[in-house]
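> Could you send the M48 family metalloprotease prediction when you get a chance?

Sure thing. Input:
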Amino acid sequence: MLRLLYKPSLLLALVVALGASSCAKDENGDRLLFSVEDDKALGEKVAEQTDSTYRAKGQLLERTDSKNARAYQLLDGVVNKVLNSGQLTYRNEFPWDVKIIKDDNIQNAFATPGGHIYVFTGLIKFLDDESQLAGVLGHEIAHADRRHTSKSLQQQYGISVLLSLVLGENPNQLAVVAANLGQLKFSRDYEREADAYSVVYLNPTQYACDGAAGFFIKAQENSSAQPEFLSTHPDPGSRVTDIQAKAAELKCTGRTVSNANFDELKRIL
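Output:
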């Protein structure tokens, strides 16, 4: 591909020269300077760095370790229902893997560009049921599938820096980006869209499609121990209302599912 033949500074000049006429915009009016292939390449770099960081701390639950096989079987069961809902734009383009970080004190989850999802054990143990887990994971999947993560990184760091990461030329900056990804703040529009798509993704599944609202309600009730997730996903009150309204619109509320697998997942973590 052409982008692999140029230094980031030269490629940036080409992007700037062509951007006004050739770069597509999404429905929010955001200009897309990154291609889907760039999303995947950046996501792979960031995921490798994230894995390395948490592996060094002994906190990454490795999929290759047989001791973690059951936990991943249970978690994948939830993730795959969301991914296979038929509602994702990049279901077949992105790798879509999920990894568990062992830290019961952190109630958070985040997504890299290109569909690498990370979830902390503290978040899983905080939740009450499998629909809540599916809702939160659906929200993070939406950030990747709607390309919010790469667009927000572009706004924060600039296209030149991100292209240098794709080309492997800025390892120190890569470490910074990976370390801060869990604290990446999205715009209000991106948060609303991720909430809405979480409902859309869960609608064809067995889950209560307003599962994410259940998480936000629980978070509001635990004001003395606000999940870290809320530091980057604020304003739970209005979001509960919007999620429930979307679920009512799609007529997919009131579902109940067995929590046997979810309870087992929490026990073995």
